[in-house]
Amino acid sequence: MARYGKKASSKVKRAMQERKRGTLRSGRSGRKVKSRKQAIAIGLSEARRAGAKVPPKRSSRKKTRAGSSSPRARAAAPAP
Description:
By secondary structure, the protein is mainly α. The protein has a domain at 6-49. Helix content is 45%, strand content 0%. The chain contains three helices and no strands. The protein has helices at residues 6-21, 36-49, 71-76. Helix 1 packs across helix 2 (36-49).
C-alpha cells in the first residue's frame, strides 16, 4: 500500500522545481529555500493542507532526565 498519494507527489515536485529555479520561499521569514530537505517538507506541508494522502508529521520527543533542568534554567536561577 502506497504511503503518499499522487497529489502529494505533484506538490513536492512543484516545490522542488521552484527551489531549482530559486523562487521557493519559506513561510514567515520569506527567505529563499536552498535545502532539498526543506523543499520536500514544504511540498508535503502544502499537500497536507490540500487534503492529500500523506502520513502525519512525526513529533519530536525530547528526552529529559528526572530531576534535572536545562543548563539555561540553571544559569538564570540565582545562586544559593
